[in-house]
Amino acid sequence: MMNLEREDISKIILSTMEDKKISYRDLEKQTGISRSTIQRYLNNLDSKFPFDNLKKIAEALNISLAYLMGWQQLDKNLMNQTFANNLMELLVKRDVPQAKLAKDLNLSEITVSNWLNAKAYPEFDEMQMIADYFNVSKSYLQEDHNEMDLELSEIERLLNKMSKEEKKRLIKIMKATFDLED
Q1: What is the pLDDT of residue 154?
Q2: Would you kindly state where each structural domain of the chain is located, as residue ranges?
Q3: Overall pTM > 0.70
């Protein structure tokens, strides 16, 4: 899949905000990016959209950066199954019965059961409650923890330690080494 145009990225963000009933205020709280800046990004296609801010917005919206950028399609069944696997893993590792989770989070047992059976996906605020309950990030709950993800996490960790100039140098090296185009 090709990278999406700027306008398409804005549409995905706005559509996801509407689907998940996430306001600009919610997005501001989750990302630390002011409402006015987010609105400028989404409505003024001439303003720059920094990659770091895209990453924060994707995480806050519970979507992958790859989906937001047009590198992969959103597969809701896969999302539901990945979340179900991660939630089940946490319940087992922490020895928390399904009924206790439901009671502690003031949810119905049917809701939790639907999540565990990949029949449903939590809403924005529910995802945050679960992350807080288990003391994990929302991304941890959403991501498939396979070897590729671990490698990407390691790359991301290393990139976050690099200066802007070091990142530019690395990009030049990668383009030359792997014959990559812009």
Answers
A1: 64
A2: 6-69, 76-142, 147-178
A3: no
